[in-house]
Amino acid sequence: MKQPDITLRRELTGRILDLGGGGEGIIGRVYGPQVIAIDPAGGAGRSTGRL
User: Fold this and answer.
1) What is this structure's pTM?
2) Measured between alpha carbons, how far is residue 33 from residues 3, 4, 5, 11 in Å?
3) Which residue in 16, 17, 20, 46 is deepest, having the highest Cβ count within 10 Å?
4) Is residue 4 situated within a structural domain?
């Protein structure tokens, strides 16, 4: 069974809230300073960029 293709649009405006990603996954790598990552397992929120 073929896996579906996933497309990430590089030109997004505004901030991206990444819940559970911790900012170290794909979303944080692709969108960098636009990402606000919250990882409940890590116990704290953190920003991968400037607010």
Assistant:
1) 0.53
2) 30, 28, 25, 13
3) 16
4) no
pLDDT of residue 48: 52
Segment 1-51, tens digit of pLDDT? 888 887 877 788 899 888 875 545 778 888 888 888 887 776 554 555 544
Domain count, the chain: 1
Instruction: Indicate whether 24 belongs to any domain.
Output: yes
- Say if 30 falls within a structural domain: yes
> Residue 4 has which token pair?
């579906």
